[in-house]
Design goal:
It comes from Pinibacter aurantiacus. One of its GO terms (cellular component) is cytoplasm. This protein has 407 residues and is an alpha+beta fold. It has 12 helices and 19 strands. The longest helix has 19 residues, at 251-269. The model has no long low-confidence stretch (mean pLDDT 93).
Length: 407
Amino acid sequence: MLSWGNRFNICCLLDNHNYHLQHGSVECVLAAGSLKSIQLNAGNAFSSLKSFAQENNDWLFGHFSYGLKNEVENLSTVKEDHVQFPDLFFFVPETIILLDEKSVSISSEKFSAQEIFDQLQSTKQFDSAAKNPVTFQQRFSHDEYIQTINKLKAHILKGDCYEINFCQEFFADNISIDPELTYHSLSAVSPNPFAAYYKLDDKFLLCASPERYLKKENQQLISQPIKGTWQRNHESEAGDESYKQALYNSQKDRAENVMVVDLVRNDLSKICEEGTVKVDELFGIYTFPQVHQMISTISGTMRSDLHWVDAIKATFPMGSMTGAPKKRVMELIDQYEKTNRGIYSGAVGYVKPNGDFDFNVVIRSLMYNESNRYLSYQVGGGITFYSDPELEYEECLLKAQGIKRLF
């Protein structure tokens, strides 16, 4: 299916790899080709998107980049973005293919369903993982990273913030990869419930995200932030179970998680009916191919007088990728991180004609610009007063395992 969609300049594949987490969504959907689109950088992006959505009562697919924080909180970012996704892009697809465990649904403005089905059956299959000889460089040396974490802890001690999500970039210049093959390899190594292959002309996002940012179903809003990571033990089932318990009982990870839960509750309270925001699950432990994760679920009933774009603007960027208080930590992120995050820690997803939507958090992802041959991935973690800088560094490497195994 992806090979067929990848023939277009614009396509978006969203695949949950048969995970059945709470509040499941579309099993697998491909949007290919663009009938209409909107592309903007921070300024009046959200209001323009709202007008675009009202004018085009149709399926929309696209992304929000982290740079939209500059519009939400009147901030600025001067660091260079080498991958160069715009801050916002959405398109009305020419063709949509929906898959679940029992059926396939095809709708297209250009092709008949039978034509597409026949072409899908003849497209190439990928049986093995790609191995590309790529050597990544780090923006931070080990010592620089440790020093920076200590500086952030000093800000916490002074009361500037309570928690901050700090990220570092790994990159390679003058690199050519096959994005489609690399995505299939990433999916084989690290299948995750909010995976995405997203192509916007010469820019590619190859995403193996385990995290949902925000979902709207009727008037119900659901957010499932991840804070808390523990390694797997693939040698022993009992050992792996003990690691899950260690994560559940970790005071440091619980402190991170509950702070983000409070931040999400605060964000949702701006746009939800009074008294409806609640925590459905706190400190849930979920297992993925590379790691165990601590996930909490927060929900609320969105006010009927608001548009779906208002829900995004009120909650973006997501608390799990910023920290608390949100504006101050975003200022510190700009001060201490060396790279413009771009689409990383943004969101990719879809909006249905009725305004229901589902968006992931862009983490555990490769970003690639085919024209300037720049390949990048970023990893990070939540820093609190209790953070051990060495352990935070090791956690970054742990989260990157699925990507590192490709090269």
